[in-house]
Inverse folding.
Protein backbone atom coordinates (compact mmCIF):
# COMPACT_ATOMS: atom_id res chain seq x y z
CA UNK A 1 0.00 0.00 0.00
CA UNK A 2 1.53 3.38 -0.93
CA UNK A 3 2.20 5.89 1.82
CA UNK A 4 2.35 9.68 1.77
CA UNK A 5 0.46 12.83 2.66
CA UNK A 6 -2.13 14.82 0.77
CA UNK A 7 -1.01 18.34 1.54
CA UNK A 8 -3.38 21.29 1.56
CA UNK A 9 -2.49 24.78 0.35
CA UNK A 10 -0.41 27.18 2.42
CA UNK A 11 -2.33 29.26 5.01
CA UNK A 12 -5.32 26.92 4.83
CA UNK A 13 -7.74 27.68 7.69
CA UNK A 14 -8.38 24.71 9.96
CA UNK A 15 -10.90 24.97 12.76
CA UNK A 16 -14.34 24.24 14.12
CA UNK A 17 -17.62 26.11 13.86
CA UNK A 18 -19.98 26.93 16.73
CA UNK A 19 -23.17 28.98 17.18
CA UNK A 20 -24.07 31.22 20.11
CA UNK A 21 -27.35 29.66 21.19
CA UNK A 22 -25.93 26.16 20.90
CA UNK A 23 -22.94 26.70 23.18
CA UNK A 24 -23.38 29.79 25.34
CA UNK A 25 -26.11 28.73 27.74
CA UNK A 26 -28.60 30.94 29.61
CA UNK A 27 -29.76 32.65 26.44
CA UNK A 28 -33.18 33.59 27.70
CA UNK A 29 -34.26 36.47 25.55
CA UNK A 30 -34.46 34.92 22.10
CA UNK A 31 -36.84 32.99 19.88
CA UNK A 32 -35.22 29.64 20.63
CA UNK A 33 -35.55 30.05 24.37
CA UNK A 34 -39.28 30.71 23.95
CA UNK A 35 -39.57 27.74 21.57
CA UNK A 36 -37.92 25.46 24.14
CA UNK A 37 -40.62 26.38 26.67
CA UNK A 38 -43.41 25.09 24.39
CA UNK A 39 -44.52 21.48 24.75
CA UNK A 40 -43.45 19.11 22.02
CA UNK A 41 -41.11 21.49 20.21
CA UNK A 42 -37.78 19.94 21.23
CA UNK A 43 -37.01 16.22 21.28
CA UNK A 44 -37.32 14.76 24.74
CA UNK A 45 -38.57 18.14 26.00
CA UNK A 46 -34.95 19.30 26.28
CA UNK A 47 -33.72 22.81 27.04
CA UNK A 48 -30.50 24.47 26.01
CA UNK A 49 -29.96 25.42 29.69
CA UNK A 50 -26.31 25.96 30.42
CA UNK A 51 -25.34 24.44 27.04
CA UNK A 52 -21.52 24.33 26.98
CA UNK A 53 -21.43 27.22 29.44
CA UNK A 54 -19.46 29.56 27.21
CA UNK A 55 -21.26 32.53 28.73
CA UNK A 56 -19.99 31.34 32.09
CA UNK A 57 -16.43 31.43 30.68
CA UNK A 58 -15.85 27.88 29.50
CA UNK A 59 -15.00 29.17 26.00
CA UNK A 60 -11.51 29.61 27.45
CA UNK A 61 -10.94 25.93 28.09
CA UNK A 62 -12.53 25.01 24.75
CA UNK A 63 -10.32 27.45 22.85
CA UNK A 64 -7.34 25.98 24.74
CA UNK A 65 -8.40 22.56 23.51
CA UNK A 66 -8.75 23.78 19.95
CA UNK A 67 -5.36 25.49 20.09
CA UNK A 68 -3.66 22.44 21.59
CA UNK A 69 -5.26 20.44 18.77
CA UNK A 70 -3.42 22.66 16.24
CA UNK A 71 -6.51 24.45 14.97
CA UNK A 72 -5.58 27.86 13.54
CA UNK A 73 -9.07 29.35 13.20
CA UNK A 74 -12.50 29.30 14.80
CA UNK A 75 -15.95 30.28 13.55
CA UNK A 76 -18.38 31.52 16.22
CA UNK A 77 -21.59 33.52 16.20
CA UNK A 78 -22.76 36.45 18.30
CA UNK A 79 -26.21 36.59 19.84
CA UNK A 80 -28.31 39.56 18.78
CA UNK A 81 -30.57 39.32 21.86
CA UNK A 82 -27.59 39.73 24.18
CA UNK A 83 -26.15 42.72 22.36
CA UNK A 84 -29.51 44.44 21.89
CA UNK A 85 -31.81 43.08 24.61
CA UNK A 86 -34.47 45.71 23.86
CA UNK A 87 -35.07 47.98 20.83
CA UNK A 88 -33.61 50.97 22.64
CA UNK A 89 -30.86 49.26 24.63
CA UNK A 90 -27.35 48.08 23.78
CA UNK A 91 -25.56 45.89 26.28
CA UNK A 92 -21.92 47.00 26.36
CA UNK A 93 -21.03 44.18 28.77
CA UNK A 94 -22.16 41.62 26.23
CA UNK A 95 -20.01 43.28 23.58
CA UNK A 96 -17.08 43.20 26.01
CA UNK A 97 -17.61 39.51 26.51
CA UNK A 98 -17.45 38.90 22.73
CA UNK A 99 -14.40 41.16 22.50
CA UNK A 100 -12.72 39.00 25.11
CA UNK A 101 -13.52 35.85 23.15
CA UNK A 102 -12.07 37.27 19.95
CA UNK A 103 -8.96 38.50 21.75
CA UNK A 104 -8.79 35.01 23.30
CA UNK A 105 -8.65 33.54 19.81
CA UNK A 106 -5.88 35.91 18.72
CA UNK A 107 -3.89 35.06 21.84
CA UNK A 108 -4.13 31.44 20.78
CA UNK A 109 -3.03 32.31 17.22
CA UNK A 110 -6.43 31.40 15.83
CA UNK A 111 -8.17 33.48 13.14
CA UNK A 112 -11.73 34.39 14.13
CA UNK A 113 -14.66 34.21 11.74
CA UNK A 114 -17.82 35.81 13.15
CA UNK A 115 -21.38 34.96 12.10
CA UNK A 116 -23.89 37.73 12.77
CA UNK A 117 -27.08 35.68 12.58
CA UNK A 118 -27.26 31.97 13.31
CA UNK A 119 -30.95 30.96 13.58
CA UNK A 120 -31.95 33.08 16.63
CA UNK A 121 -33.42 36.55 17.05
CA UNK A 122 -34.36 38.65 20.10
CA UNK A 123 -37.92 38.16 21.29
CA UNK A 124 -38.70 41.81 20.66
CA UNK A 125 -37.75 41.33 17.00
CA UNK A 126 -40.04 38.29 16.77
CA UNK A 127 -42.87 40.35 18.28
CA UNK A 128 -42.53 42.73 15.35
CA UNK A 129 -42.97 39.81 12.91
CA UNK A 130 -39.34 38.63 12.68
CA UNK A 131 -38.14 37.93 9.17
CA UNK A 132 -41.68 38.11 7.78
CA UNK A 133 -41.71 41.85 8.30
CA UNK A 134 -39.42 43.89 6.05
CA UNK A 135 -38.76 46.18 9.01
CA UNK A 136 -36.24 43.56 10.16
CA UNK A 137 -33.82 44.68 7.44
CA UNK A 138 -33.18 48.03 9.13
CA UNK A 139 -33.24 46.46 12.61
CA UNK A 140 -30.62 43.95 11.54
CA UNK A 141 -28.61 46.73 9.88
CA UNK A 142 -28.47 48.66 13.17
CA UNK A 143 -27.36 45.54 15.05
CA UNK A 144 -24.67 44.84 12.44
CA UNK A 145 -23.41 48.41 12.56
CA UNK A 146 -23.14 48.41 16.34
CA UNK A 147 -21.53 44.96 16.56
CA UNK A 148 -19.06 45.38 13.73
CA UNK A 149 -17.98 48.79 15.02
CA UNK A 150 -17.24 47.18 18.38
CA UNK A 151 -15.59 44.00 17.15
CA UNK A 152 -13.75 45.01 14.00
CA UNK A 153 -10.38 45.52 15.69
CA UNK A 154 -10.44 41.76 16.31
CA UNK A 155 -12.18 40.33 13.26
CA UNK A 156 -12.24 40.92 9.53
CA UNK A 157 -13.91 37.72 8.34
CA UNK A 158 -17.71 37.96 8.60
CA UNK A 159 -20.60 35.68 7.80
CA UNK A 160 -23.79 37.75 7.67
CA UNK A 161 -26.43 35.02 7.89
CA UNK A 162 -25.99 31.32 8.51
CA UNK A 163 -28.00 29.03 6.23
CA UNK A 164 -30.84 31.35 5.19
CA UNK A 165 -32.12 28.43 3.10
CA UNK A 166 -32.34 26.10 6.11
CA UNK A 167 -33.91 28.83 8.22
CA UNK A 168 -36.65 29.55 5.65
CA UNK A 169 -37.26 25.85 5.09
CA UNK A 170 -37.34 24.75 8.74
CA UNK A 171 -39.19 27.75 10.14
CA UNK A 172 -41.69 28.33 7.29
CA UNK A 173 -42.16 25.04 5.41
CA UNK A 174 -41.46 22.20 7.84
CA UNK A 175 -42.40 24.25 10.89
CA UNK A 176 -39.75 22.73 13.15
CA UNK A 177 -37.95 26.02 13.89
CA UNK A 178 -39.73 29.01 15.41
CA UNK A 179 -42.18 30.44 14.44
CA UNK A 180 -43.27 26.97 13.27
CA UNK A 181 -45.26 27.92 10.18
CA UNK A 182 -45.99 25.86 7.09
CA UNK A 183 -46.39 28.42 4.38
CA UNK A 184 -44.12 28.20 1.31
CA UNK A 185 -45.11 31.69 0.17
CA UNK A 186 -43.97 33.16 3.46
CA UNK A 187 -40.77 31.12 3.24
CA UNK A 188 -39.90 32.90 0.00
CA UNK A 189 -40.75 36.27 1.48
CA UNK A 190 -38.45 35.55 4.43
CA UNK A 191 -35.67 34.48 2.08
CA UNK A 192 -36.05 37.67 0.04
CA UNK A 193 -35.84 39.75 3.23
CA UNK A 194 -32.70 37.86 4.17
CA UNK A 195 -31.14 38.73 0.80
CA UNK A 196 -31.86 42.41 1.47
CA UNK A 197 -30.55 42.18 5.03
CA UNK A 198 -27.37 40.49 3.82
CA UNK A 199 -26.86 43.20 1.19
CA UNK A 200 -27.34 45.98 3.77
CA UNK A 201 -24.92 44.25 6.13
CA UNK A 202 -22.36 43.76 3.36
CA UNK A 203 -22.27 47.47 2.52
CA UNK A 204 -22.29 48.56 6.18
CA UNK A 205 -19.35 46.30 7.00
CA UNK A 206 -17.33 47.47 4.00
CA UNK A 207 -17.99 51.12 4.83
CA UNK A 208 -16.73 50.52 8.36
CA UNK A 209 -13.91 48.16 7.47
CA UNK A 210 -12.79 48.31 3.85
CA UNK A 211 -10.43 45.35 4.23
CA UNK A 212 -13.22 43.09 5.60
CA UNK A 213 -14.18 39.89 3.83
CA UNK A 214 -17.91 39.31 3.96
CA UNK A 215 -19.85 36.23 2.93
CA UNK A 216 -22.80 34.09 3.89
CA UNK A 217 -22.91 30.39 4.79
CA UNK A 218 -25.20 28.35 2.57
CA UNK A 219 -26.24 24.82 3.35
CA UNK A 220 -25.57 22.94 0.11
CA UNK A 221 -27.53 19.75 -0.28
CA UNK A 222 -27.04 17.46 -3.26
CA UNK A 223 -30.45 16.47 -4.66
CA UNK A 224 -30.35 13.52 -7.06
CA UNK A 225 -33.33 12.10 -8.94
CA UNK A 226 -34.48 8.89 -7.19
CA UNK A 227 -35.35 7.14 -10.46
CA UNK A 228 -35.13 7.55 -14.21
CA UNK A 229 -38.53 9.24 -14.57
CA UNK A 230 -38.27 12.71 -16.11
CA UNK A 231 -40.54 13.94 -13.30
CA UNK A 232 -37.94 12.81 -10.71
CA UNK A 233 -35.26 14.69 -12.61
CA UNK A 234 -37.45 17.76 -12.81
CA UNK A 235 -38.26 17.76 -9.11
CA UNK A 236 -34.60 17.17 -8.08
CA UNK A 237 -33.59 20.12 -10.24
CA UNK A 238 -36.34 22.29 -8.84
CA UNK A 239 -35.27 21.43 -5.28
CA UNK A 240 -31.70 22.33 -6.03
CA UNK A 241 -32.72 25.58 -7.71
CA UNK A 242 -34.93 26.60 -4.81
CA UNK A 243 -32.89 25.37 -1.87
CA UNK A 244 -29.32 25.80 -3.06
CA UNK A 245 -29.39 28.46 -5.77
CA UNK A 246 -31.93 31.12 -4.86
CA UNK A 247 -29.98 32.89 -2.13
CA UNK A 248 -26.41 32.98 -3.48
CA UNK A 249 -27.60 33.73 -7.02
CA UNK A 250 -29.36 36.82 -5.73
CA UNK A 251 -26.14 37.96 -4.03
CA UNK A 252 -24.22 37.33 -7.21
CA UNK A 253 -26.53 38.83 -9.83
CA UNK A 254 -29.04 40.87 -7.83
CA UNK A 255 -31.91 38.78 -9.25
CA UNK A 256 -34.10 36.93 -6.74
CA UNK A 257 -35.39 34.03 -8.82
CA UNK A 258 -37.32 31.43 -6.86
CA UNK A 259 -39.02 29.87 -9.94
CA UNK A 260 -42.37 31.21 -8.67
CA UNK A 261 -41.22 34.74 -8.05
CA UNK A 262 -38.59 36.82 -9.86
CA UNK A 263 -37.48 40.31 -9.01
CA UNK A 264 -34.37 42.42 -8.76
CA UNK A 265 -33.04 43.36 -5.34
CA UNK A 266 -31.20 46.69 -5.52
CA UNK A 267 -27.78 46.65 -3.87
CA UNK A 268 -27.59 42.85 -3.71
CA UNK A 269 -25.45 42.16 -6.79
CA UNK A 270 -21.78 41.49 -6.06
CA UNK A 271 -22.16 41.25 -2.26
CA UNK A 272 -20.05 38.16 -1.70
CA UNK A 273 -16.32 38.30 -1.02
CA UNK A 274 -16.33 34.59 -0.31
CA UNK A 275 -18.92 31.85 -0.17
CA UNK A 276 -19.27 29.78 3.00
CA UNK A 277 -20.38 26.23 2.28
CA UNK A 278 -22.00 24.00 4.89
CA UNK A 279 -22.02 20.50 3.50
CA UNK A 280 -23.30 17.48 5.41
CA UNK A 281 -25.09 15.11 3.05
CA UNK A 282 -26.95 14.38 -0.21
CA UNK A 283 -30.46 13.07 -0.80
CA UNK A 284 -32.54 11.56 -3.56
CA UNK A 285 -35.87 13.05 -4.54
CA UNK A 286 -38.90 11.35 -6.06
CA UNK A 287 -41.78 13.18 -7.72
CA UNK A 288 -45.02 12.80 -5.78
CA UNK A 289 -48.23 14.54 -6.88
CA UNK A 290 -49.48 14.24 -3.29
CA UNK A 291 -46.57 16.13 -1.73
CA UNK A 292 -48.05 19.53 -2.46
CA UNK A 293 -46.66 21.27 0.61
CA UNK A 294 -43.18 19.94 -0.23
CA UNK A 295 -43.07 21.20 -3.83
CA UNK A 296 -44.13 17.73 -5.09
CA UNK A 297 -41.04 15.92 -3.89
CA UNK A 298 -40.35 13.11 -1.44
CA UNK A 299 -36.81 12.99 -0.10
CA UNK A 300 -34.92 9.94 1.11
CA UNK A 301 -31.46 8.40 1.31
CA UNK A 302 -30.42 5.59 -1.02
CA UNK A 303 -31.08 2.18 0.56
CA UNK A 304 -27.43 1.20 0.71
CA UNK A 305 -26.26 4.52 2.24
CA UNK A 306 -24.06 4.46 5.31
CA UNK A 307 -26.08 6.45 7.83
CA UNK A 308 -25.14 8.44 10.89
CA UNK A 309 -26.26 7.40 14.36
CA UNK A 310 -29.63 9.15 14.25
CA UNK A 311 -30.07 8.57 10.52
CA UNK A 312 -29.93 12.27 9.70
CA UNK A 313 -26.81 12.15 7.56
CA UNK A 314 -25.83 9.76 4.79
CA UNK A 315 -22.09 9.41 4.28
CA UNK A 316 -21.57 10.78 0.79
CA UNK A 317 -18.11 12.37 0.61
CA UNK A 318 -18.19 12.91 -3.16
CA UNK A 319 -20.97 15.41 -2.47
CA UNK A 320 -18.36 17.85 -1.18
CA UNK A 321 -16.85 17.87 -4.68
CA UNK A 322 -20.27 18.57 -6.20
CA UNK A 323 -20.74 21.26 -3.58
CA UNK A 324 -17.47 23.06 -4.38
CA UNK A 325 -18.01 22.80 -8.13
CA UNK A 326 -21.49 24.20 -7.67
CA UNK A 327 -20.17 27.00 -5.43
CA UNK A 328 -17.57 28.00 -8.02
CA UNK A 329 -20.27 29.47 -10.29
CA UNK A 330 -20.33 32.54 -8.03
CA UNK A 331 -16.74 33.40 -8.90
CA UNK A 332 -15.44 34.01 -5.35
CA UNK A 333 -13.17 31.97 -3.06
CA UNK A 334 -14.92 29.35 -0.94
CA UNK A 335 -14.56 28.21 2.65
CA UNK A 336 -16.14 25.07 4.07
CA UNK A 337 -17.91 26.68 7.01
CA UNK A 338 -19.47 23.44 8.36
CA UNK A 339 -19.12 19.71 7.78
CA UNK A 340 -19.60 16.95 10.33
CA UNK A 341 -21.66 14.03 11.54
CA UNK A 342 -23.67 13.04 14.62
CA UNK A 343 -21.82 10.13 16.18
CA UNK A 344 -21.56 9.69 19.95
CA UNK A 345 -19.41 6.57 19.68
CA UNK A 346 -17.09 8.08 17.08
CA UNK A 347 -17.60 5.02 14.87
CA UNK A 348 -18.22 6.78 11.58
CA UNK A 349 -16.68 10.22 12.25
CA UNK A 350 -13.00 9.38 11.49
CA UNK A 351 -13.96 7.84 8.15
CA UNK A 352 -16.43 10.66 7.46
CA UNK A 353 -13.83 13.36 8.09
CA UNK A 354 -11.00 11.65 6.22
CA UNK A 355 -13.05 10.81 3.13
CA UNK A 356 -14.63 14.26 2.96
CA UNK A 357 -11.25 15.94 3.36
CA UNK A 358 -9.70 13.68 0.77
CA UNK A 359 -12.39 14.64 -1.73
CA UNK A 360 -11.95 18.28 -0.74
CA UNK A 361 -8.23 17.93 -1.40
CA UNK A 362 -8.98 16.38 -4.82
CA UNK A 363 -11.23 19.21 -5.90
CA UNK A 364 -8.66 21.79 -4.74
CA UNK A 365 -6.10 20.06 -6.99
CA UNK A 366 -8.37 21.03 -9.86
CA UNK A 367 -7.82 24.70 -8.98
CA UNK A 368 -11.08 25.29 -7.16
CA UNK A 369 -10.24 28.03 -4.65
CA UNK A 370 -11.15 26.65 -1.21
CA UNK A 371 -9.40 28.47 1.61
CA UNK A 372 -10.41 26.64 4.77
CA UNK A 373 -12.40 23.98 6.57
CA UNK A 374 -14.42 24.39 9.78
CA UNK A 375 -15.57 21.16 11.33
CA UNK A 376 -19.01 21.02 12.90
CA UNK A 377 -18.33 21.03 15.82
CA UNK A 378 -15.86 21.35 18.70
CA UNK A 379 -17.92 20.07 21.66
CA UNK A 380 -21.35 18.38 21.66
CA UNK A 381 -23.94 21.14 21.74
CA UNK A 382 -27.66 21.92 21.78
CA UNK A 383 -28.84 20.70 18.37
CA UNK A 384 -31.93 22.87 17.93
CA UNK A 385 -35.21 20.92 17.72
CA UNK A 386 -33.17 17.72 18.19
CA UNK A 387 -32.06 18.94 21.60
CA UNK A 388 -29.26 16.90 23.16
CA UNK A 389 -29.95 13.73 21.18
CA UNK A 390 -27.24 14.36 18.60
CA UNK A 391 -23.50 14.39 19.20
CA UNK A 392 -21.54 16.34 16.62
CA UNK A 393 -18.54 17.22 18.78
CA UNK A 394 -14.90 16.26 18.44
CA UNK A 395 -15.32 16.32 22.21
CA UNK A 396 -18.35 14.89 24.00
CA UNK A 397 -20.03 16.77 26.83
CA UNK A 398 -21.22 15.52 30.20
CA UNK A 399 -24.15 17.85 30.76
CA UNK A 400 -24.24 17.22 34.51
CA UNK A 401 -20.61 18.06 35.19
CA UNK A 402 -19.67 20.08 32.09
CA UNK A 403 -16.74 17.70 31.62
CA UNK A 404 -15.45 17.35 28.07
CA UNK A 405 -14.75 13.85 26.76
CA UNK A 406 -12.14 13.64 24.05
CA UNK A 407 -13.13 11.46 21.10
CA UNK A 408 -10.48 9.80 18.90
CA UNK A 409 -11.51 12.12 16.06
CA UNK A 410 -10.22 15.10 18.07
CA UNK A 411 -6.70 13.64 17.96
CA UNK A 412 -7.06 12.63 14.35
CA UNK A 413 -8.21 16.10 13.31
CA UNK A 414 -5.34 17.59 15.34
CA UNK A 415 -2.87 15.59 13.25
CA UNK A 416 -4.50 16.83 10.05
CA UNK A 417 -4.37 20.47 11.21
CA UNK A 418 -0.77 20.14 12.43
CA UNK A 419 0.55 18.62 9.24
CA UNK A 420 -1.81 20.59 6.98
CA UNK A 421 -2.67 17.32 5.31
CA UNK A 422 -3.95 13.76 5.45
CA UNK A 423 -1.21 11.19 5.91
CA UNK A 424 -1.47 7.47 5.20
CA UNK A 425 -0.39 6.89 8.83
CA UNK A 426 -3.41 8.78 10.13
CA UNK A 427 -5.76 6.88 7.86
CA UNK A 428 -4.21 3.60 8.94
CA UNK A 429 -4.54 4.51 12.60
CA UNK A 430 -8.07 5.96 12.67
CA UNK A 431 -9.97 4.58 9.69
CA UNK A 432 -8.10 1.66 8.12
CA UNK A 433 -11.24 0.81 6.14
CA UNK A 434 -10.60 3.99 4.12
CA UNK A 435 -7.03 3.02 3.14
CA UNK A 436 -7.91 1.24 -0.11
CA UNK A 437 -9.91 4.27 -1.19
CA UNK A 438 -7.48 6.99 -0.10
CA UNK A 439 -4.16 5.23 -0.74
CA UNK A 440 -4.93 2.53 -3.34
C1 LIG B 1 -26.37 24.33 11.38
C2 LIG B 1 -25.91 24.03 12.78
C3 LIG B 1 -26.40 22.66 13.18
C4 LIG B 1 -25.79 21.63 12.24
C5 LIG B 1 -26.08 20.18 12.59
C6 LIG B 1 -26.18 23.16 10.42
O1 LIG B 1 -27.18 23.17 9.47
O2 LIG B 1 -25.78 25.49 10.90
O3 LIG B 1 -26.35 25.03 13.65
O4 LIG B 1 -26.20 22.37 14.50
O5 LIG B 1 -26.27 21.89 10.96
O6 LIG B 1 -27.43 19.89 12.59
Amino acid sequence: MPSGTYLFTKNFLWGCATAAHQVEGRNENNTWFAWEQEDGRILEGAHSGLACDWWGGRWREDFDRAQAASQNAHRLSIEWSRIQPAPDRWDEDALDRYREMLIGLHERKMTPMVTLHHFSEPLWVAEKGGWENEAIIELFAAFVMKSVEALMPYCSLWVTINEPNVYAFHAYIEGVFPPGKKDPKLALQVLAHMVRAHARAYHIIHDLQPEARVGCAINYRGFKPAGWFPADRWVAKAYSRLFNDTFPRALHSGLFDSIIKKHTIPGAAGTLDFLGLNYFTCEQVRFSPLAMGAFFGRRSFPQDALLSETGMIAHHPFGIIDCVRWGSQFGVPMIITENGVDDQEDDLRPQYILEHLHDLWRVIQNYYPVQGYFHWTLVDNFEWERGWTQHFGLWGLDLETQARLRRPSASMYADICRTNGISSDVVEEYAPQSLPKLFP
The mean pLDDT is 97. The longest strand covers residues 274-287. The chain has 15 helices and 15 strands.
